[in-house]
Amino acid sequence: MSNAEVARTAIGMWSGTIPCADCPGIDYTLELHADSTYRERMVYQGRSATPFVQSGHWGVGDGRVQLKKQGVGNNQLVIEGETLIMLDSEGNKIESQLADAYRLARQNPEEPEDNPSLWREKYERGIDFAATGNEPFWSLEIDLEKMIEFKALDEENGSVLTPVPAAEKLEGAEGIVYKVQTVSGNLEIRLVKETCVNTMSGRKFPYTVTVLKNDMEYKGCGMYLRDSRLNGNWNLVELEGKAINIKDAEQNQPFLNIDLAEGRVSGRAGCNRITGRLEPISDRINFGPIAATRMACLDMDLESQFLRVLSDAELRYSVSEESLELLLGGKAVAVFARGK
Length: 340
Fold this sequence. Notes:
Layout lengths: L2 H8 L1 E7 L7 E7 L4 E8 L7 E10 L2 E5 L7 E5 L2 E4 L16 E5 L8 H9 L4 E5 L4 E5 L4 E6 L7 E4 L4 E2 L5 E8 L2 E8 L3 E2 L6 E2 L1 E7 L2 E9 L7 E8 L2 E2 L11 E5 L4 E5 L4 E9 L2 E4 L3 E2 L8 H10 L5 E4 L3 E6 L2 E8 L2
Antiparallel strand pairs: 1-2, 1-8, 2-3, 3-4, 4-5, 5-6, 6-7, 7-8, 9-10, 9-19, 10-11, 11-12, 13-14, 14-15, 15-18, 16-17, 18-19, 20-21, 20-22, 20-29, 22-23, 23-24, 24-25, 24-26, 27-28, 28-29
């Protein structure tokens, strides 16, 4: 198989019980994800039920799966049918009487696009935008304050790590483009704000992504990563430094309901119900045009003030399990408490 075919076939979850020098065996699981990351899990039988877990990146070279980790060991694997075979430290097949124990069987794979923990891990590493593509498989990570990293699972097509250049607006579409000249050639990344459907998982993403690397074109889907703690109901308890009088507003408690999966916000501004879109990017949060019902109330001051705050394009946020703050210039302009 070509490197691209090996990459396509290898994605998924593999497991087996491999030999252990001083225990009955090691329960071993290897997850190979389409975004070029892997997760390795080992439980040493007879010692402890606590697993040893490590993760990193993987690629394909010379027709072999290669785990990019330090040290010697079983870092190379080869596919034979529906098995993934561990090779020795020099990349050769193990020929001892225990050779069959180094064969891993395919399990039901879990697509990374449907695994929130993978997106959460990227967010916690400081990644602001992530994208993947199929045929060939590739991944893109953008840390807006540091670097762009583009990876192709097929090692022949190579990977690129470069500082983030100034973004340019796209002509004729909503989105941005990054253009970089590297030692390995030109790289152009287009992020277009239009719905994209992953061809393997069927999941919808808010951005269509095109990467041009020299004479190669890669297409896929991506999204800005968000802190999952934003999800749910949030009751407004303070606005521009003044506490909200819950007694006076008990029939019309201002609140927001945030649905990150749909990229939407709804709730009540005081008198009227509201709905709209939102997009958190890094620590910034942009509430799109907010639509409100048209009920006339005696006192609209609180509602007008709340909607004015939400419409500010410079809003940033800070969130915990129980509290959400919207910030302007480092100062909290709206404080929320977790609702039911």
